[in-house]
Amino acid sequence: MNNIIKNHTGRSRTATLEDVAREAGLSPMTVSRALNNPKVVRPATIARVMEAVNVTGYIPNMLAGGLATSRTKLIAVVVPQINNNMFVDTVQAISDALAARGYHMLLCIVGYEPESETEIVATLLSRRPDGIVLTGIHHSSDLKRIILNANIPVVEIWDLTPTPIDMLIGFSHEKVGNAIGEYFLGKGFTRFGFICASDRRAVVRKNGAISVLRSQPGTEIREMMVSLPANMEVGRTALKEMISGGERFDAIICSSDTLAQGVIMEAEAQGLRVPDDFSVIGFADLNFAAHNRPSITTVSVDKWDLGIKAASMLADRIEGIPVEEPILDTGYRLVIRESA
Question: Where does the record place the HTH cro/C1-type domain (predicted)?
Answer without folding.
Answer: 16-59
